[in-house]
Write a structure and sequence with these properties.
Layout (H helix, E strand, L loop, with lengths): L9 H17 L2 H5 L34 H8 L6 H5 L9 H5 L30 H4 L11 H8 L15 E7 L4 E2 L5 E9 H4 L5 E10 L6 E9 L10 E2 L10 E7 L5 E2 L4 E6 L5 E9 L8 E2 L2 E7 L5 E2 L1 E8 L2 E2 L6 E7 L1 H7 L4 E9 L4 E10 L3 E8 L10 E2 L5 E3 L4 E8 L8 E2 L9 E8 L8 E5 L23 H6 L1 H9 L8 H13 L5 H10 L5 H11 L2 H7 L9
This protein binds 2-acetamido-2-deoxy-beta-D-glucopyranose (NAG) (7 copies).
Keywords: Disulfide bond, Glycoprotein, Signal
GO molecular function: copper ion binding; dopamine beta-monooxygenase activity
Protein name: DBH-like monooxygenase protein 1 isoform X1
Length: about 575
């Protein structure tokens, strides 16, 4: 799988130390590792829990030709300088310092860099498998493009999965129709929906324990996603051009395959129910990358699903966290949204420890950077995901298969999404279409029943309905959508008596609204914007109240010294 967050362990640094002497005979990079921040712990882009041995070299084992960063390093006299730190050797938009955990360019040898997580290789354009980076020409005797280089470094081995050796393991291949033509477009999402039961020899109650890619045309295939569908979803008679989701009823991610991964062998104690007790319909989604626009390419890739009737102790679940219903304003290089699944929320959400085996970020095309952090006891911060350069077409999967990430009731889970709308002159709303935006972290975890809901998402100014301390002091927040609550509320009665709808503005109305805004947190700032949009707007009493408040908008603003931009 792809880059996972690797926290440097004592064990690994010991191994590096003891082998340094031997390596010096072969090449001299281990001493250079000490000359750059985190030089000995830069993750391999596609091999989990593996470091890139010589950051400045083309080969992941260290020796041989230099990459773009290695050449810049040499030019600087093989030391970490301000100018080397500020350079972006691989041209991906992050400086060498940002990639190596020294964003302020203050690191000196034998000190701890300011950041030790979320590192990336300053010689490899990121996301390393994005269509843009793949097409980069590189200076090399062996390779022409980053794609050739990375495909060589990321060759997947066989899927090692002891469970598959057990008896009673069945397999079924869900591949899209033989001879399907790849459209002559840069990039395409193509889907086919299958009825698993019609492919099973004996229908029954099973669990999936592994998913392996079936790669037909490696030249165009970039990644594969497998979704579970609701039972009502019919199988599709043929593959079809699809969007972000294969269909409205196929929205449960099961797994994602990306270049370099041999497949997904689930944690040995876990499975996903299929057949009579679980999913019966699956959607396979392929992402094809055809930059030269050839029209003679065929593909029939897909996945092989391994399933067994010997049930595992735990069922895997999928938890969604993040922010819903936001607007990204136009013309901005970095718009940031933060979403907190608070400690109070995780206490009611989890009734026991939850073990995360895989996590990934999900935004759309103006997503720029994203992370999911876990804050424990208000002090200990860990990362579940970190994509310093996010790209929708190159999902980065963070795997914790061997050592699941433990989430406890009471942990805080903080999702941060940053968007770049610099090239847009319009507002991007939240939504499922690729022209809209999302901000979700997906966590695959077990045991499924230890999370009592499938999501913990926030709205508006980071409001989370599971924790009234996020209500910005408006304890009645959730009742605003009820017409009965509104019509009985004192504030509505006051507005009804003192304000006309739309106009004219009368002084007693201004005074009523000013008093409300001063005394009632529900009528203040961003929270009131949220209440207007999500609640008042949805019922006639709320709309009537809004029309009355609107009559004195200008007069109320002037009391609060708010000046609005006049039309130019
Ligand atoms: C890479 O090199 C090829 C051949 O020299 C050229 O056609 C192509 O435009 C180059 N690509 C980029 C992204 O510079
Ligand atoms: C099955 O077991 C054999 C022998 O122990 C091993 O070589 C092989 O890799 C195993 N297969 C899988 C899929 O793990
Ligand atoms: C796919 O079609 C080709 C040519 O039509 C044929 O040779 C091949 O056997 C088919 N493969 C499968 C898996 O049906
Ligand atoms: C959590 O609740 C579910 C459903 O009530 C139950 O099946 C499960 O055993 C509980 N887990 C723990 C650790 O108590
Ligand atoms: C949080 O801190 C308390 C008191 O210091 C400690 O008892 C508890 O084990 C800590 N929780 C975790 C999950 O580390
Ligand atoms: C929040 O909810 C708790 C438990 O339901 C309640 O005791 C408390 O008074 C509420 N706080 C506010 C500010 O509404
Ligand atoms: C508005 O500005 C006036 C004059 O500058 C000041 O006296 C008044 O306190 C301000 N009101 C608010 C609500 O800030």
């Amino acid at each position: 799988m792809n880059r996972s967050l690797i926290v440097r362990t004592r064990l690994i640094s010991d191994v590096l130390l003891t082998s340094a002497v031997l390596w010096q005979v072969v090449s001299s990079y281990p001493t250079y590792q000490q000359q750059i921040p985190n030089g000995d712990s830069v993750p391999h882009p596609c091999k989990p829990n593996t470091f890139w041995a010589g950051v400045g070299h083309q080969n992941d084992q260290g020796s041989g030709e230099r990459n773009a960063f290695g050449r810049d390093f040499e030019r600087e006299g093989k030391i970490w300088t301000q100018s080397l730190c500020h350079l972006d050797s691989d041209g991906d938009g992050l400086t060498n310092g940002q990639e190596l955990g020294d964003p302020e360019c203050v690191w000196t040898p034998n000190t701890l860099p300011s950041r030790q997580v979320g590192l990336s290789n300053p010689g490899i354009c990121d996301p390393w498998d994005s269509p843009v980076c793949f097409s980069n020409n590189i200076t090399s005797v062996k390779y022409q493009t980053q794609e050739e280089w990375m495909r060589d470094m990321c060759r997947a081995g066989p899927l090692l999965c002891p469970g598959l050796n057990e008896s009673d393991v069945h397999q079924v291949a869900l591949t899209i129709d033989n001879g399907t033509q790849v459209p002559f477009m840069d990039k395409t999402y193509y889907c086919q929906i299958f009825d698993l039961e019609s492919h099973m020899t004996i229908p029954g109650n099973y669990q999936i324990i592994a998913v392996e890619p079936v790669i037909d045309n490696a030249q165009v295939l970039h990644h594969i996603a497998l979704f579970g569908c609701d039972d009502v979803q019919p199988a599709s008679p043929a593959p079809f051009d699809c969007g972000v989701f294969p269909s409205i009823s196929c929205h449960t991610f099961i797994t994602i395959w990306t270049i370099g991964s041999p497949g997904d062998c689930f944690h040995p104690d876990t499975g996903i129910s299929v057949g009579s007790g679980g999913f019966t319909k699956f959607a396979v989604q392929l992402f094809w990358n055809n930059p030269s626009g050839r029209d003679d390419l065929l593909d029939s890739s897909g996945v092989k699903i391994y399933y067994t009737e010997k049930r595992r102790p735990y069922e895997l679940g999928l938890l969604k966290i993040g922010h819903e219903s936001f607007l990204v304003p136009p013309n901005h290089p970095a718009v940031s949204f933060k979403s907190t699944c608070t400690s109070v929320c995780t206490k009611s959400l989890f009734n026991g420890t939850v073990y995360v085996t895989m996590a990934w970020n999900h935004m759309h095309y103006i997503g720029k950077q994203m992370q999911v952090q876990v804050l424990r006891n208000k002090t200990d911060i860990q990362y579940l995901t970190f994509d310093p350069i996010y790209n929708f077409d190159s999902p980065q999967i963070h795997v914790f298969q061997e050592k699941p990430f433990q989430l406890y009731p009471g942990d805080e889970i903080i999702t941060t999404c940053i968007y770049n709308s610099q090239d847009l002159s319009w507002t991007t709303p939240w939504g499922e279409a690729t022209t809209e935006e999302m901000c979700y972290g997906f966590l695959v975890y077990y045991p499924k029943e230890n999370a009592l809901k499938t999501s913990c998402v926030t709205l508006g100014p980071d409001v989370n309905y599971c924790d009234n301390s996020t209500f910005h002091g408006c304890s009645d927040l959730q009742r605003f959508s009820s017409p009965f609550f509104l019509s009985d509320a004192d504030f509505y009665q006051d507005i009804l008596h003192n304000c006309r709808t739309f106009s004219p503005c009368v002084e007693e109305c201004t005074n009523t609204i000013v008093q409300l805004k001063k005394n009632d947190p529900c009528f203040q700032d961003e929270l009131f914007d949220f209440i207007k949009d999500q609640m008042l707007n949805t019922n006639p009493i709320g709309q009537d109240m809004m029309a009355r408040i609107a009559s004195c908008q200008r007069q109320v603003d002037s009391v609060f010294n708010i000046s609005r931009n006049t039309r130019t």
